[in-house]
Design goal:
Layout: H1 3-12, E1 16-18, H2 41-55, E2 60-65, H3 73-83, E3 86-92, H4 110-130, E4 134-137, E5 142-143, H5 151-167, E6 174-178, E7 188-189, H6 194-204, E8 208-213, H7 223-233, E9 236-241, H8 258-273, E10 283-286, H9 295-314, H10 318-326, H11 330-342, H12 346-355, H13 362-368, H14 371-379
Parallel strand pairs: 1-2, 2-3, 4-6, 6-8, 8-9, 9-10
Antiparallel strand pairs: 5-7
Helix pairs in contact: 2-3, 2-9, 4-5, 7-8, 8-9, 9-11, 9-13, 10-11
The structure holds 6-deoxy-beta-L-fructofuranose (LRH) and manganese (II) ion (2 copies).
6-deoxy-beta-L-fructofuranose is lined by residues 20, 91, 138, 178, 180, 213, 240, 248, 287.
Length: 390
């Protein structure tokens, strides 16, 4: 690739950051208060805009309803745009109402299923008013015990509710369906893996796509292969990036397995370069909740880790890779990948940032810019809380 092509590719990269990654979140054991953490959607959007100003590649903020609430969504859209960011995916909350104890779209009681669908329809309204493109659905639905409910009936209930919300989606929008094999349900989850998500979406239509959250796989799953398969089917809608060692750990993406993240980007770059339809339409989102990390720095680090993985993947010698593969040269092909991964892309990224008027070292600019100190002064520190009752 020429330098101009590399710069153009780097400038096209866009990662959504999640509003819920800027506030205080914790585990069931404890929520620690971080001084100056965002307290409401306005502050979350302002923080997302800071991450975009420093990185140049985080132009949208994803919302979670009703964690994010306002009286007037178009006012929030205007506020975001004035800060230089747009509204990303809209995420309904189908897991925190008391009514959803036994599920939402899969609930045995039709009245509860109707309530869940009504909430998603409200979220589609939010999508209309904010100009968002993606409705992103994740379900906590599942069973804790064998025999607890009728598994086939639950699948049918999902089919019905999914088709109802898909029909209400505006033409320009897409439905992304996220899968997860466990938690909070521990015997069966209704949309447990990419295959179940894919089977549901085939029945809906072309604007229904699978969302891959890196934390939502059982140990040993080959996520790159899932991504390649979905790309080839034209059904890869987007990502929720995070780092995992055990499961849905929600750590900083790239912090545990940088080679795995690189391999994933390598599949995406190959698909882009080889003109796979839909490869340039994939939504890239961070989905992390930072329990002990400084909020802004954690998000900025995450975005930059994705940028580094992408920049390394752009170094791939595609011709050499495909030639080695065709010749059956197992380790030669693997070596082409290793060479790209081993490239030090930091000088390239510094030069690209300087050419775009961005800070050459965004993390340093964040630390030296006094953002955290100002937020702590202006917003104060919430009371710590959460966790098991004591
Ligand atoms: C579920 C999940 C899903 C939710 C988010 C808060 O584990 O990944 O995307 O919407 O966490
Ligand atoms: Mn997720
Ligand atoms: Mn998750």
């Amino acid at each position: 690739m020429t330098q101009a092509e590399l710069y153009a590719a780097l400038s096209r990269q866009a990662l959504e950051t999640p509003s819920w990654g800027y506030g205080d979140t914790g585990t069931r054991f404890k929520t620690f208060a971080y001084p100056g953490a965002a307290r409401n959607v306005w502050e979350r959007v302002a923080d997302a805009a800071t991450v975009h100003r420093l990185s140049g590649i985080a132009p949208r903020v994803a919302l979670h309803i009703p964690w994010d609430r306002v009286d007037d969504w178009s006012e929030l859209r205007g506020f975001a745009e004035a800060q230089g960011v747009g509204i990303g995916a809209i995420n309904p909350n189908l897991f925190q109402r008391d009514a959803f104890k036994l599920g939402s779209f899969g609930h045995p009681d039709e009245a509860v299923r109707k309530e869940a669908v009504a909430h998603v329809l409200e979220c589609i309204e939010v999508l209309e008013q904010t100009g968002a493109k993606d409705l992103s659905l994740w379900f906590a639905d599942g069973l804790n015990y064998a025999g607890q409910d009728d598994l086939r009936a639950r699948k049918r209930r999902f089919e019905d509710a999914l088709s109802e919300v898909y029909a209400a989606l505006p033409e320009r929008a897409r439905l992304l369906l996220e899968y997860k094999p466990f938690e909070p349900a521990f015997y069966a989850t209704d949309v447990a893996d990419w295959g179940m998500a894919y089977a549901h979406l085939l029945k809906l239509g072309e604007r229904a796509l699978v969302l891959v959250d890196l934390g939502h796989h059982l140990p040993g799953a080959n996520v790159e292969q899932i991504v390649a398969f979905l790309l080839s089917e034209g059904r890869l809608g987007g990502f929720h990036f995070n780092g995992r060692r055990y499961a849905d750990d929600d750590l900083i993406v790239g912090s545990t397995d940088p080679f795995g993240l690189f391999c994933l980007y390598a599949e995406l770059v190959l698909a882009e370069r080889e003109g796979v339809p839909g490869a340039t339409e994939v939504s890239y989102m961070i989905d992390q909740s930072h329990a002990i990390e400084p909020k802004l720095e954690a998000m900025l680090r995450s975005v930059l880790n994705c940028q580094e993985a992408y920049a390394k993947a752009l170094q791939l010698d595609v011709g050499a890779l495909r030639a080695a593969q065709a010749a059956g040269d197992v380790l030669g092909a693997h070596g082409v990948l290793r060479d790209a991964f081993a490239t030090d892309v930091r000088p390239l990224l510094r030069a690209w940032r300087e050419a775009r008027g961005l800070p050459a070292d965004p993390l340093r600019a964040l630390r030296e810019g006094g953002y955290d100190a100002r937020n702590a002064r202006e917003r104060g520190t919430a009371a710590a809380g959460g966790g098991y009752p004591t």
